[in-house]
């Protein structure tokens, strides 16, 4: 899998990590364009290859009254508009076999959620679209087990796969990142560290997931030091009022300083 395989991806020769970044969910056109515009300016300045991230629907919810989306086709059309407006690739997660071909008409990367990465039919359907498949490591899976998910993509006739680590369940209400897993998973495919989901605190009694956004830079720095190929960061201009995952998202105003620090660390690590 080469970054050059992704349409519209810029700065692929900068030797930087690549970035998947955007809101947890597409809440509307204006918010998506506002976030994308800011992140594009930052990543162009820092020469970071950038893929806009937004979920067109949220199928994994704690409560039945939780926000699930604004409508599948409406959200996917917004992702397409983000792509054409800023000339950047986009990524969204899929949950059912029928989602694969449908979403592939609008986005460049299909993401398999962590809870679903062992679902063979879903992984195969994503691979057969010809799009890049971002395989999120299950919170219950070892790094070594991810080679089988990658192999499913290859056995479906594609070599376009990434692995994303989003932490491992630690007890009932916390996540940890075992950085020993990064070199292991990089043997199988380019590996991304999902910084913000790794800081979730799930299974809260209120039915709303908590988080530790104060630790975002700590986890991101450790990922860069340990040579992750990419970073995944959810961001919003108003996390407190975001419709999904606001408790662990990075405020958009803090993104440029964070990425500047991480790019500096990357250069230092690669000079050693």
From TrEMBL:
Secretion signal, residue range per the UniProt entry: none
Top EC category: transferase
Pathway participation: Carbohydrate biosynthesis; 3-deoxy-D-manno-octulosonate biosynthesis; 3-deoxy-D-manno-octulosonate from D-ribulose 5-phosphate: step 2/3; Bacterial outer membrane biogenesis; lipopolysaccharide biosynthesis
Organismal lineage: Bacteria, Pseudomonadati, Bacteroidota, Flavobacteriia, Flavobacteriales
Reactions catalysed according to its record: D-arabinose 5-phosphate + phosphoenolpyruvate + H2O = 3-deoxy-alpha-D-manno-2-octulosonate-8-phosphate + phosphate
Keyword match Zinc-finger: no
EC number(s) from the headed UniProt entry: 2.5.1.55
NCBIfam families linked: KDO8P_synth, PRK05198.1
Stored InterPro entries: Aldolase_TIM, DAHP1/KDSA, KDO8P_synthase
GO cellular component, one term: cytoplasm
Organism listed in the record: Seonamhaeicola marinus
Family to which this protein belongs: Belongs to the KdsA family.
Coiled coil ranges: none
GO BP: any one term: lipopolysaccharide biosynthetic process
Subcellular location: Cytoplasm
All residue ranges annotated as the DAHP synthetase I/KDSA domain in the record: 13-269
Gene3D superfamilies for this protein: Aldolase class I (3.20.20.70)
GO molecular function: 3-deoxy-8-phosphooctulonate synthase activity
Listed name of the protein: 3-deoxy-8-phosphooctulonate synthase
Keyword Acetylation among UniProt keywords: no
A Pfam family this chain is assigned to: DAHP_synth_1
Keywords: Cytoplasm, Transferase
